Structures are given as C-alpha cells and as structure tokens.
Amino acid sequence: KTGSTTLQTFFDKNRAGLSAQGVRYWYTDTPTGSSISLANAALTGIGRKLGRARVGARAGKPTAEEGRERLDAYRAELAEIAATATESALLVSSEHVSVRQRDAESIAAIDALFRESFDAVDYIYYIRNQHDLALSRYSQRVKGGMGVPLDVMLDRSMKSLDHLPFVETWIDTIGAERFHLRLMDPTALVNGDLCDDFCHVIG
Fold first, then answer.
1. Are 48 and 105 contacting, i.e. CB atoms less than 8 angstroms apart?
2. Sign of the four-CA dihedral 161, 32, 177, 72
C-alpha cells in the first residue's frame, strides 16, 4: 500500500524514456504487476513454502518443481540481460518482496539471485504512516469481499505494521549503504510526488 502500482504503471508507460536514460524496466508477470513470481522463486532456492503466484492470466500455487524451474529461468534471463543489455541499470519492482523476504535467509536469497549477474544491487523501500497503511489495507480487503471487522484485522496485522524490525533486518543483511528508505508522504517526497521522488533517488 505504498504506491507500487502507481510506480509500475509509470515504469511501463515510460519504458522507452527510461531505456534512453540507461535504465531497463524488467518484470516477471505483467508490466504493471507485482512480480510476485520473482519473490516466490527466490524462496524456492532455500526450500521455503511457496505462496500464491500469478503468471499471465493464471493464478495459482506452484509446486516446488515449478518454483525451481522459474528460479532457473529467472537466473538465466538476468544473466542474459547483464551480458547483452545496452542499458547500464536494471529496474525491478515488487511489493511482494516486502511480504516474503522478511528474514535474513530469505533476504540473502533474493539478493544472491541479482548479485549473480550484477555487481551493484540496491533496494528502495517506501514506508507509510501506519494509520493510513492500516486503513488502506482494510479498504482493499473490504472491496475484495473480506467480512472481517477492522479491530480483528488490526490484531492480525499489527506485527506487519511495525516497520522497524523489517528495516533493521534488511540493513543487517545487505548493509545500510544499499538500502534506501523513503517515506511515502507528500511532505517528504520530492515535489510531493511518488514518481518524482523515485526518479530522484535513482538519479
């Protein structure tokens, strides 16, 4: 709930412009999707249980074998991009990394996937005021047909609303110099705009 779809839509619409600036936008599912299959594939390599994954128009839960096949395919594709791309940087966006890669082992796994092919790998993570985040999550779930009261949902998701443990784990695992924390708030964003802010961070 920190503008991932907004950014992914922006990246897709400005693919040519990004390429001209030396940045290739890469995704694993759909151009404006969440690349959930990427987050899942990284877990496969360490034997974790896979969550839901969307490939094209098909949603489902891949088997461990399918997950390994996807991981191998992504590894090969990333290596090919690194070897042949005319752009100097690769841009990947997935909000599911913040859900699936929450401990040192899973963070190291997805980092290793990228570092096999790229010398420098950085991460940009947006956090949001917890009150706004909780209400946004609840609104999305109500629209999706969830009939759980707000207080029950808050009890279930309270741990995930605490940004500090997540941020500290990422920093401890990959180093503070590669983890760029941003606040999704108009007063903190460059020009008060999420897309402008992201472009500013990547230079």
1. no
2. positive
Residue 177 is classified by DSSP as G
Q: How far is CA 135 from CA 6, 64, 74, 139, in A?
A: 18, 35, 35, 6
* Tokens at 31, concatenated: 């151009």
Find out whether 108 and 173 touch, Cβ atoms under 8 Å.
yes
pTM for the complete prediction?
A: 0.81
Mean predicted lDDT score pLDDT of the chain: 84
* Amino acid sitting at position 104: A
Alpha helices in the chain, H assignment, sequence order: 4-13, 15-20, 36-44, 64-84, 97-100, 104-115, 130-143, 150-157, 163-174, 194-202
Hey, what amino acid is at 5? T
| Residue appearing with tokens 């399918």 | 66
Rounded Cα gap, residues 117 and 131, in angstroms: 39
* Helix H or strand E encompassing 127: strand 123-127
Looking at mean pLDDT, say which of 54-68, 73-87, 129-143 comes out highest: 73-87
Q: What letter represents residue 134's amino acid? A: A
Query: What is the per-residue pLDDT across 82-118, written as a single tens digit (0 to 9) for each?
Result: 999 999 999 999 888 887 888 999 999 999 999 999 9
Q: Are strands 23-26 and 179-183 parallel, antiparallel or unpaired?
A: unpaired
